[in-house]
Amino acid sequence: MAPIRAAVAGATGYLGMTCTALLAGHPDVVLVRLLSRSHAGRRHSDVVPGSAVDMVLSDGLDPGEVEVVLAALPHAVAAAQAGSWLAGGAVVVDMSADFRLRDVDLYERWYGLQHPACDLAASAVYALPELHAAAVRGADLLAVPGCYPTAALLATVPALKAGLVAPDVIVDAKSGVSGAGRSPSAGTHFSEVNESVHAYGVAGHRHSAEMVQEMSLAAGGAVRVTFVPHLIPMTRGLLATAYLRPLPGVGHEQLRAVYAAFCEGLPCLRLDENPPPTKSVSGTNLAALHVGWQDGVAVVTCAVDNLVKGGAGQAVQAMNLRFGLEETAGLPTRSRWP
Length: 338
Prior knowledge:
By secondary structure, the chain is of the alpha/beta class. The protein has helices spanning 14-24, 44-47, 77-87, 104-111, 118-121, 129-137, 147-161, 190-193, 208-219, 252-263, 308-322; strands at 4-9, 29-35, 68-71, 91-94, 125-126, 141-143, 168-175, 198-199, 224-231, 238-244, 269-271, 287-294, 297-304. A hairpin with a 2-residue loop joins strand 12 (287-294) and strand 13.
């Protein structure tokens, strides 16, 4: 089988550079084009510290050159180009929020933008492989979930789908600063975040719309979600803690058995005996889960690397499924510990 010809759009941001590194070491992929408008004409290795990819960055792409475009671009930018990429015969794996929400009115409400490709939104598949593998295999437009929804959904969907908990979920989540992207801002300045933790989006965070959509789909009815994210002073990693109220008669062991069955056979999931630290999955495409119990309430934690399983690694995992490759091809599954 000939290698899959791939391009990365937005190759110098945190997600894009992670995606580039993964694809450069992928046994079944050849990188054909790396896109970056702000750094066009420079080598990737000159722009991204530590990069071993010497390819010159471009500001445009002929879709006929490639079979897949992995887009790590700001909201609305990838959507404006996705149509031409698809028309040129490329599969599009989008890491922005442009195609995650089935209801474009919700997109416009939460992101404050008119959707640039409403006609494509209906054909997109929400590309969380552990939930929608069959649909991913048959789609040409894949919408990769955000890092917070990835962890929150893996922590809640098994119980909701099994009908074992009330459809009223609380998710407390904490993410490293790299989740805010590479562009500098006052809110992610070292002196602002070091030795400090703060909640944000308390009145409502835009990622909650994804969570409500997918949790309700799994539960077969409306699910209420209370979601509060926190920024913590570390570079990478994300921990989501979900509080679920079991229905009468449902116990800890029954709930844990559901999560064990859910994880079985899924190579990027791990069910731990103890609550997982983020470092245990750092640099990997693994999501580590733990099912705890406190006074009749299920406490389910999920740890992911926000740039890998929460972003670029998940994009590569979805690409692997779409092209019939080994699901973990090119993906790291061993953490760097300590």
